Amino acid sequence: MTHKAAPKVILLEVTNSKGLPDHFQDHYHTHLVCHRGSIRFVFNDQEMACKRDEFLFWFAESRLSGLQLSKDFKATVLLVEKDFLNNNLPDQGWSINALLHSRVYPVKTIHGENGRQKILLNFKWLHDRFLETEHRFYTEALSLQMQLFILEMWHIFANEYERRKHSLQTGTLYERFMQLAGEHCMTEREVQFYSNQLNITPKYLNQICKHSSGITASQWIQRFARERIIILLENKKLNISEIADKMEFGSRSFFTRYVKKLLGATPSEYRSRMG
């Protein structure tokens, strides 16, 4: 018996009475424009909400639970199959920071009707290209449209990313630590580095993080590093030695042990599970 392959791209209008597909987050990256009402959820153990004139992005397999849609909720939702998106990420140095930012801050503000229309048009262009199966160069054209989609979304929210980065530089110690961890976790995995940057002791930094978020600074560093490793492993253009070099590990074997500690699998095992 053969099974029909799941579509790479799905475009939906979602309301309270017509919700998201079952188990959508297992296989799809989710892009959502909220038109009215709100959607509430728990993301990485934090309660969050997306309201009117806000954009929401969830990675496939995110730590997501407790979805609640308000009675008047309405949204346009684009679901993109995880491997299709991951395999078509533009080769940009900026991409890892942009992706990591979305893993920490999934809700973003849409600025005006013009911003909303740009996002919705970007949704439509990708979905229309997906449906155009008679195109002589369908596979190549769809891959290019996926890359263009990603670049357009990065462009739309680049200013917000830069504003948040700038504001956190003058924020609380906890906020400044989170910004530093996002920037440096690729190569700095010890609490001492961050406490030195903030002119406090490692013990005090752990206490601040524990009080603010319920987990320690070292746990946050591991969480950030884990997210980056996943992003890098999902980019099949990079081999494992190249990833180890990017993260400045002294040897591939040391990198392999570190990944197994964070992911419960070696880099090769993790990639084989991805298929």
TrEMBL record:
The keyword Hydrolase does not apply. The keyword Metal-binding does not apply. It comes from the Bacteria. Residues 175-273 form the HTH araC/xylS-type domain. Keywords: DNA-binding, Transcription, Transcription regulation. PANTHER family: ARAC-FAMILY TRANSCRIPTIONAL REGULATOR, TRANSCRIPTIONAL REGULATORY PROTEIN. This is Helix-turn-helix domain-containing protein. It comes from Pontibacter populi. The lineage of its organism: Bacteria, Pseudomonadati, Bacteroidota, Cytophagia, Cytophagales.
